[in-house]
Amino acid sequence: MDKLAVELLTLISFFACTDGGRTGCSLSLVSRRIREASRPARFYSVSLMTSATQMEQFLDCLQKERGRSVEMLPRVRHLCLSLFGKGLEMTPPSAASSSSQPTSRAAFLASLQQRTQQWRAAQENLDEQYNRIIPALVRTVAPDIHTLALVQAQWRSASIVRCTFPALRELTIVGGDPSFQPLAFMPRERPVYPSLKRLHHILAWVRKDIDFKQWAVHAPNVTHLRVSRLDYHPHTTVNSLEEVICGRSEDEEYLPRLQHVMIEPHPAPPPNVRMSTAHVAFRDFLVYLERLAERARVPVKVLPPLEFPKMVPGVDPTHKCIQRVKKEWLERVFESDGAGCWEEGMHALRA
Fold first, then answer.
1. What would the mean pLDDT of 140-167 be, rounded to a whole number?
2. What is residue 99's predicted lDDT score, i.e. its pLDDT?
3. Angle at Cα 220 formed by Cα 192 and Cα 142, nearest 5°?
4. DSSP secondary structure string, 183-235?
5. How many CB atoms lie within 10 A of CB 204?
6. What DSSP letter does each residue of 59-92 carry, written as one string?
7. Can you state the angle between helices 105-141 and 52-68, rounded to 10 degrees?
8. Cα–Cα distance between 21 and 333 in angstroms, integer?
9. Which of 5, 144, 214, 292 has the fewest CB atoms found within 10 Å of its own CB?
10. Distances (CA, A) of 101 to 81, 90, 112, 115
11. How does pLDDT run across 269-289, given as a tens digit for each residue?
């Protein structure tokens, strides 16, 4: 290693730093020479999954490393960002507290009120932290980023980040449109994602309207579109998706470069001896999707409905979803033609 040219070491570092940040951090601790050579690649891929504090520390570190750079600035090319955080996780009850269960209705209501107040205080604290750090983080990475996996929930954005992602090629979003950048408030003449090729929406946890016609305006060059956990509500999401993949606008075709669409329906209602209204509605929805695929102007693959995993005591299913998103993101970072979420039949592995 001591005999290799610095330029070659830097190139090797770019190939090595594809694991979400661990390798880049390790290389910076090897020696002064390796730290200097690997600095441009240190933040090549970054995953921030824990808390707003972690994001704030990362942003501070990135800015300091850029200040130390002489030639090539360290840039974030691949980012996996979870806004779910740990701010609202309740502390597991101790043995003493679990043994002293409420013995009356009044005690139960008092306990419930206390838990609600704790949750509300944690939510307000989480909102304050994210509203302070997310705008600065997004503005810093937006000009350079190539792939982004965004997991959002539990955060109520108080501001709109007005910036574009000129180099972003692939985007996975969990929980609807970015809270910090609602497309309805962005100028139509300046697309937010002009280079985006692959867009994956996972409609989990929150039933936010997604207007795919807005996405057609702000991501006009999308070639691959996937929608996971699609339900027949809200209607805006379903109707706008149909217009984009089947119809045309008054002036031009929506997403003129679209080549392939994948749709994964929401899980079916729990099985029952007698067919309920929910079962009939779900059956009709699957028929609607099959007919939608037949009318579409591009190939549409309707995957089997998502199957919920078996509930395991002590395992939060939302955390499993977050880890799955990160795993698929890493597959695409490590290899540009990696499967990720784009291989048909992956539903069996994603359940």
1. 88
2. 47
3. 25
4. GGGS-TTS-S-TT--EEEEE--SS-----HHHHHHHSTT--EEEEEEE-S-SH
5. 20
6. HHHHHHHHHH-SSSPP---EEEEE---STTPPPP
7. 20
8. 12
9. 5
10. 38, 17, 12, 14
11. 888 767 788 888 999 999 999
